[in-house]
Amino acid sequence: MLRILWKWLAASFSVVVILLAIAIGVFRVVLPLMPHYHEKIEAFASEAAGTPVRIEGIDARWSLAGPELRFSNAELLTADGATPLLRAAHGSVVLNLTTLLSERKVSAGRILLDGLQLEVVRDADDGWMIGGRAMPRDGDASLPRRLSVGLREAVIIFRDQVTGAGPWQFEDVDLDVDLAGQRLRIDGLAQLPEALGGEIELSLEADEFHSLDDFNGQVYVRSEELELAGWHDIMPPERVTPRSGSGDVVAWVGMAGSQVKQASVQFSLREVELERNNEIVSSYDLTRGRVEFDRVESGWNASGHDLVFITDGASWPAATFAIEQVGEMDGDGLLYADLSYVRLQDIVPLADWLPQSPLKQKIFELQPRGS
Fold it and tell me: How far apart are alpha carbons 99 and 196 in whole angstroms?
């Protein structure tokens, strides 16, 4: 019985393979025979992109995901069609087979671009331009209902006209963006410019995405061999921030609007100098450990694990701490702390990142020292 079933399955599979082969052949033969098919595909791509698109070569395939258009040397142009904004050496568009069959409407499923070159600019008015196009400032700007885009071996150039940082060229960028309704997921991997470090990995996920101004979701970042001096230009000068140093950082942050709800940072850094307003306030030969933060209904909790600071010839044992804030930090709240070891002068500068409160003010007034 099993042998008969196996033969039927094998025969059915063979039929499917033959039918797919025929479909692929028909699809590739029929497409070039369609009147003005090249212009129609460029018009379809232009409508999807919102700006003129020029495509040099077009071919057709039938992939496992459905009918697929493959193209070469595609350019996204300015509105007048005169100036290229970005280029992709190769790419493909998987057509949405469900929409094609049910609504008889051609719409893109997944878009994959190889060798893309893209420029991202934050302008002097704190607006964003991607590929020469200004991004809407309105938080309610309409988003596509569904989007699936992948970049492979892309080159992205970033300039910041607010701080003067850049141009930074990120190479070997692999990026996947999937938007389905209000669910957004972004996964990326890139080689940092030499001045910034080694490799960086990014994941972003949101179940109810409306805009970046009202982001409710999670962000994960892993970076190797960061060069902190390279990031100096985009750091807020009025805060305590790294002036130099190098190492690895892994961070996870949960956001609700503009508020951090949860966070976890694991770090291992060497030869770190901290500064504020162009003045060095502290330095560490080595610092490593893991710090976690959780905002709760009654206040917030913070904890540290395996913390080590080596500075001025003094070295911490691997230390832990737990801090709980109950109520508001306006003098009426309570603060509970349990620390296995602390050298106050090493951590006082980091208190600059605490929310503004009487406690923070007292710390900077007293400048406590000791262990």
Answer: 44
d(CA 269, CA 320): 18
Residues 6+ apart with CB under 8 A from 140: 210, 211
In the block, tokens 């069609």 appear at 81
25-53: per-residue pLDDT in tens? 444 444 443 445 567 777 766 665 556 77
Residues β-bridged to residue 234? none
Q: Read off the tokens for 121.
A: 């600019």
Quote the CA–CA distance of 200 and 249 in Å, as a whole number. 10
3-state secondary structure string across 139-205: CCCCCCCEEEEEEEEEEEEEEECCCCCCCEEEEEEEEEEEEECCEEEEEEEEECCCCCCCEEEEEEE
pLDDT lower than 70: segments of the chain: 1-38, 44-51, 60-66, 76, 78-81, 85, 95-110, 135-147, 210-214, 327-333, 355-357, 359, 366, 370
User: Are 55 and 74 spatial neighbours (Cβ–Cβ below 8 Å)?
Assistant: yes
Does this model's pTM top 0.85? My answer is no
Report the candidate in 74, 66, 82, 81 with the shortest Cα–Cα distance to residue 20.
66
Q: Which of these, 280, 287, 319, lies nearest to 303 by C-alpha position?
A: 319
d(CA 190, CA 147): 22
The residues spanned by each domain of the chain are 235-371
